[in-house]
What we know:
- The chain has two domains: 2-64; 84-233, Glucose Permease (Domain IIA) (Distorted Sandwich), CATH 2.70.70.
- The chain has 236 residues and is of the alpha+beta class.
- Strands 3, 4, 5, 6, 7, 8, 9, 10 and 11 form a nine-stranded antiparallel β-sheet that branches.
- The chain has helices at 2-45, 84-95, 229-233; strands spanning 117-118, 121-122, 126-129, 135-137, 142-150, 154-160, 166-176, 185-186, 191-195, 207-215, 224-227.
- It is globular.
Amino acid sequence: MRSDVTHDTPLAFTVAMSFLMGVVTTIAVYSLRADKLAPDVSEIHASPVAASDGSGTDAASAKDQPDVTPKEPAAAVPAAPVSPTEAGEIVALRGRELKLPVDGVDRKDLRNTFAESRGSRTHEALDILAPRGTKVRAVEDGRIQKLFTSKAGGLTIYEFDPTQTFTYYYAHLDRYESGLQEGQMVKRGDVIGYVGSTGNASPDAPHLHFAIFRLGPEKQWWKGEPINPYLVLSEQ
């Protein structure tokens, strides 16, 4: 009898220990799986503003978020260097919110033709293509300083701004607005002429040749320092 008891006790102990080890192993495996899955769950449900640094930006995930900071329009970065004086004038003119001089044209469709070559010279103006007869409007309040016809520009208008600092030059016009006269005061948006191809413009490509000049102290309507109109009129 003592011999049977001696053999029965280790068997029961072994069964009990095996059961306990199975339970412990199951718990351990479950815990490891839960830990492994936890980061995936948090990444899926993370909110960009869930943990803010006080500035409204998620400090922990900022470097992982796409950059949505508004970029400066390409138009503000000229293709060629400008002097500090011209840069300041461009900023000042953009602040005036000049009107596009040609009806039906969107700012995003403008093309920077200022530095293009025209034979032996630089263009120094903006070409705005439009159908012949499209209305041309004053970009700002001002004075019609000169109505002039030239071999290159055809029918042209020189408009002084209210401060007589700048000249706005409109060229290749098909005709002037009826009744337009030198010395006449015009308002922003007034019709002053119509798109054409007079002068040396191609008859097959009617357009407005538009230029801006900074006047000298003599206020000579035909003479001044050119400013790139594209950088003034393009999208802001």
